[in-house]
Amino acid sequence: MIYAEVMHTIEWQIDRGELKPGKKLPSIRSLAKRFDCSVNTIIKAYSEMEKKHKIYSVSKSGYYVVERALSSHAGSTDTGIIDFLSAGPDKKAMPYRDYQHCINQAIEVYKEEMFTYSEIQGLYSLREELARHLRELQVFTAPDRICVVSGSQQALHLLISLPFPNGRKNICVEQPTHISLIESIKYQQAKAYGIEITPNGLDMKRLEHLFQHNDIKFFYTVSRFHNPTGYSYSNTERRKIVELAQKYDVYIIEDDYLGDLDPDTRQDPMFAYDPSGRVIYTKSFSKVMLPGLRLGLAVVPEVLRDAFLSAKFASDLHTPVLTQGALEIYLKSGMFMTHIQRMRSIYKRKAALLQRAYQEQLPPSAAYSGSHSGFYSTIRLPSPLKAETFIEHLKKEDVYVDNAKRMYLSEFEQDSVIRLSVSQVEEEWIGIGVQKIARVMRVIYPMLFLICRVGQQDVLNCEQ
């Protein structure tokens, strides 16, 4: 077919750099003459290339080559870099093509509605679909309590500043916790009390003391696949935390940003133990789908809804309607569930490979965290190693990790903890990356590995 030949020729010139980004393409008539075909054939070729985002049209001017962003291949064999630093979804598994179809479908279904001002709370049809989706996560709520937000971080930022019905002012957070929450606390000058999360969970007596004596407005928690440690609470622990919150009139903000990745249907969110409004449930679609979407939700109690929506209105008027409409179609079509099943399999394999590499490669004095289903974990470096210096040595080995120091409140600050994410690292590079981490430990401080020479069993018995 001639139009396919035209497409192949133009794309070949673009790939070779003969047609630069922003360069105007030959006119339709000149190409028709060159290929000895009709004008309609060239129009079809250009139309197909436009759908593939290779070119774009300018009214009364012509067609131009699209400016292409440089793609990052960190963690791949292309660069040799092993990127445990980046924490977005696996780039090869991001459903951008499916979502593109959903965006196009949303425009066809809703037309001009996709480009007008919308409800602050979010499209009602989307909230109905989100309510159905949440039931799969054991979160039973009505669409009227669901607020669509620009990523769950927006909800958290707004809730920090809002007055709560209990009249309290301070907040309680796990230590460590993710950097965006720490920054939000600092920016709003909120008073925060920390409680350490350990391999054995939380110290419930300490948590009760904090709730009882420190004017706690809410307790912020990531109840499964915690960032940065990767830990998850048991159902017993979740229930106990909810009971303490009920006893001392403390609200809970449960950030279930990776809840969709949990394959264990027996695990319940804290919301399931008190759906009345004591637990404010938030989740995001960024980490499991496309970070650039900035789409999330918050299940807000009736008593807080008006104040929350007023704060959201002041923040951004409403979440972009086009992405909301596309998400609704993505959920309804079953694409999301298909995607999640694939993501569960990917991260389960990667996390298991990471844990096995820790066991086999790290010295007994290096404590590590993580799960076999999430994609975050931490390594507490043995004394006297410091994270900042250690990270610089790792960079020379083309291994990138994150310094967890920023993820602590000042009074809990640690300078010997690094965070790893396996989300964007190829499976075959995970073990190699941990091997390099162990080698750098050995180079900096050889005494760490003297115990390891006794035998493999010594290493396998030091998981925590």
Model description:
Helix 2 packs across helix 3, helix 4 crosses helix 11 (321-332) and helix 6 packs parallel to helix 7. With 464 residues, the protein is an alpha/beta fold. It has three domains: 2-65, Winged helix-like DNA-binding domain superfamily/Winged helix DNA-binding domain (Arc Repressor Mutant, subunit A); 96-333, Type I PLP-dependent aspartate aminotransferase-like (Major domain) (Aspartate Aminotransferase, domain 2, 3-Layer(aba) Sandwich), CATH 3.40.640.10; 361-460, Aspartate Aminotransferase, domain 1 (Alpha-Beta Complex), CATH 3.90.1150. The chain has a seven-stranded mixed beta sheet with strand order 4-10-9-8-7-5-6, sandwiched between helices. Strands 11-12-15-14 form a four-stranded antiparallel beta sheet, covered by helices on one side. Strands 1-2 form a two-stranded antiparallel sheet. Helix 7 links the parallel strand 5 and strand 6. It is built from 15 helices and 15 strands. Residues 69-77 and 452-464 have low confidence and may be disordered.
